[in-house]
Amino acid sequence: MSPAQMPITHPELSSTPALDVDVLCAGFACHDLVFAVPQHPGPDEKMRAEGLTNCGGGLAANAAVAAARLGCRTAFAGYLGADVYGDFHLAEFHADGVNTAWVVRGSEPTPLSAIIVKPDGLRTIVHYRGDSEGACTGRFDLAQLRTKSILIDAYQFDLAVALTEYAKANHIPTVIDADALRPQVAQLVQQVDYVVASERFALEYSDDAGVEAGLHKLSAVAPHVVITLGGRGLIWQQGATVGQLPAFPVNAVDTTGAGDAFHGAFAAGLALGLGWDELLRYASAVGALCCTKVGGRVGIPMAAEVTEF
Ligand code: ADP
Q1: Tens digit of pLDDT per residue, the chain (309 long)?
Q2: How many angstroms separate the alpha carbon of residue 292 from the centre of ligand 1?
Q3: Helix (H) or strand (E) holding 79
Q4: CB of 221 closer than 6 A to ligand 1?
Q5: Residue 190 Cα, ligand 1 centroid: separation in angstroms?
Q6: pTM flag (> 0.70)
């Protein structure tokens, strides 16, 4: 064998664990410290919080938890620091049955958010992401992957790009959680089958021309587009066909994480092979149920709750 024919053995690639799942969610995981306070603290004020919620968060991570609770064999691919928050998040994933074989750990801290919630529902968030954004670059041999759908956000951008290319070659449906307009997200919306975007993203993408203008502009680059509008439901476009679906009426007490739950359910629905109308109703039901409990991850429902709903 000449040197040119010799297989390239990359130490990490050659040791990529095989994944055989229904749903792969790849991207951002963080830890949330949510402090409930009576009012916004003043400058230099020391304030005692009335409540503390301590849980994992992040777009793709929450979506993975949602897909797993809905009964799909689900894996998360992304980064967690080798610190207490990373250990905590990993344990949470395992409690929900999420496969973590494609989680990279390292000395950069687990991204952390300190969230201050006031009685009026307004939140102040301070977050630290460190330098883990490219931690998954070149780390996985995608030939080791078997999955029925893939959800990405843009946090591990190189991995997301590689996954869209792998998915295209293997006819696996891909969906992106488009939350805020950044160059990486603008590139990825052109590479996936399904764009499920927030209202804010649609507005930004339209250069503030309006949500419907954003929907149409996204439809020029992606075959299926959904814009979620919180308690007002969603609008969608496939080619020249447009539609809308109102939100399920629920007693919403905390809308945190509804979007992530919607995305996880959407990816789960794709893996289950649901038709378009059923897919949108299924994801909307999961998003609505998520709003009926306080705490983003706490509210993500189990499959039986969705069926009953
Ligand atoms: P994001 O957090 O990504 O902006 P949204 O707030 O738009 O996500 O919520 C996603 C979906 O969750 C909505 O399209 C809707 O189906 C459901 N949802 C969100 N808020 C409510 C609510 N107050 N009542 C019922 N359903 C809701």
Answers
A1: 443 344 444 445 668 999 999 999 999 999 999 888 999 899 999 999 998 988 999 999 999 999 999 999 999 999 999 999 999 999 999 999 999 999 999 999 999 999 888 887 677 889 999 999 999 999 999 999 999 999 999 999 999 999 999 999 999 999 999 999 999 999 999 999 999 999 999 999 999 999 999 999 999 999 999 999 999 999 999 999 999 999 999 988 878 889 999 999 999 999 999 999 999 999 999 999 998 887 778 889 999 999 999
A2: 11
A3: strand 74-81
A4: no
A5: 24
A6: yes
Burial 99-132 (b: 16+ CB within 10 A, else e): bbebbbbbebbbbbbebbbeeeeeeeeeeeeeeb
- Residue 46 gets the label, from left (phi > 0), alpha (psi -120 to 50) or beta, of beta
Does the Cβ of 284 fall within 6 Å of ligand 1?
Answer: yes
CB 25 within 8 Å of CB 268 = no
Question: From atom 26 of ligand 1, which residue's Cα is the shortest distance away?
Answer: 288
Cβ of 291 closer than 6 Å to ligand 1, yes or no, is: yes
Instruction: Give the Å distance between the CA of 241 and the centre of ligand 1.
Output: 22
Cα 263 to ligand 1 centre (Å):
10
